[in-house]
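Hi, here's the filled form for the chain we discussed.

Project: internal
Contact: R.S.
Residues: 252
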Amino acid sequence: MSAMSNPRKGVLAHLGRAVRARRQERGLTLGALSERAAVSPRFLAALEAGDGNISVARLCDVAHALGTTAAALLEGVDAADPRARPVALLGLRGAGKSTIGPKLAARLGVPFVEIDRLVEHAAGMSLSEVFELHGEAYYRKLEREALAGVLSRSERAVIATGGSIVHDAESFELLRRSATTVWLKARPEEHMARVVAQGDERPMANREDAMEELRTLFAARAALYVQAAHVVDTSVLGVEGAVEALAAALGA
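And the returned structure, exactly as it came back:
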């Protein structure tokens, strides 16, 4: 397990998202903002990633360069408290979202929601049929609508997301802005073994290079998954250990 954050990290993550969103709204590159605020691009990148412990004076410089105030960038920071936000589980198939999710929800005393099940309900068909008949764009539309609906509720929940949600910039940004994100990490070999153990042999069907394809997919998505507020290595902790670690990090 790594990157288990405390409330201070939650504040920095919230601030980083606010700075990035404001910079993008104004069409500024990191380099351009660096020049305006007299802050190094490397530090700004760390700040936007939630790793930059910026001083009040420097924050005011950045805010001024963005045409706003430090107070505005910190607005709503209390919502970053992990004890008040929905919890969104990220990861490839076989990560343990459907196993760890219900257990964590029970531990927190909140509902467990699977976005893909909501998509199926909205479409009136299975996910495979959604993709076959309507394509990925339609799936993404239903996924965004389902996610927005869950996050708009006043009640907290544990949310299992689809493995590819990180490739939809709008949905992923909404998740990072509105929920405490958790990457359930495992080795590619474990992902494959868990999926097959569940009786799903599709990953291996007529594909000699299935394992290599999975490693490639893992590497591509890991760069996005790692942006989550928490990273839990289920290969090390197992199901119960992951639940315990997350419950502790979330203040349960």
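Let me know if anything looks off before we file it.
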